[in-house]
User: Fold this.
Amino acid sequence: MSIRVITFIQDAAREDELLSALVSGIPSCELVFRARSLASFEEYCAYAPHESESIILIHDQNSPYAKLIPAHLLRQFRTVDISQMNNSSSEIIAQDLARTIREDHVAQPQARARVKRSGLISITGTSGSPGITSIAINVARELSEQMKVALIDLDQCRRDVAHHLGGRSGERLRSSQNLRVTYALEECDQTELVVVDLGSAPELTQAIGDRRSQGREFLSVMEESETMLYVVQPESSQLHELENFLTELSRTSFAGKLHIIHNKFSSNSRNRAAYKRARSLSDTWSHHMLPWDLASMERAKNQLSTLAESVPRSKLRRAVKELASTIEVDIPATRGE
Assistant:
């Protein structure tokens, strides 16, 4: 595992000693930048291209300059304050830094506790447009035949649920008597089933330590969900993402039911092999196949409607309806009345 660090320590001799100790404690450590002053640190943050969430800042809060670092810059990084570390020997420094970086900032997330929200269904999946939004819209439409449904668009990269249903992007609209589109959990009431389009799933390891709103929101909704649908296509790269997601899922506090959705599935040998591999990765979860039916999906999109309205007798619509019927959520008696 590669560890990328920047340092902001005014005592050059102490900084050299710390870096030497760090490299001996973590051979895969990579020094990205050494800040010599507050101005150079601010310039680096402003202009240097980097992924700050994957970099660890080592600084000394006893330094008068370090105390002047703006809070918004500190929040960009995982930080290690070495002001309280024992510097009696390089060996002790190496042990302290290696333990702090590996355990506190990389490997072990803080204890997490989420209260599962009844009637909350989140839909996410792999990258590469596997069909998350289309499935969210059509599953919500099928569920709305039995109860009131709020479809929430929380895709951080592309909020276009309303556009798919004939509205303007970002518009709050009512698709039918029992189905409406909105953009925040706070806008839903207790009489509604909530279906959330979360968009593609990030790496959960990064999301756990992500202080930005995007990572926090995804993780918060996912962990509160009573049911989660994870959409994947039968391709090797997407199966690899599925495998990583399932591995990292155990580090979260998600305690709901997971459905693996195999979208755009055809009965050729390649797709069957991919499905068999996915089952071997996650046989404890429910698996569903949605057939490859480009004509039906394109017709629904062109008409800015759902499969139920555009192609109600299609094989794809029947598969989505069957999927919706298998989703078990705790619905209060007042819902749908």
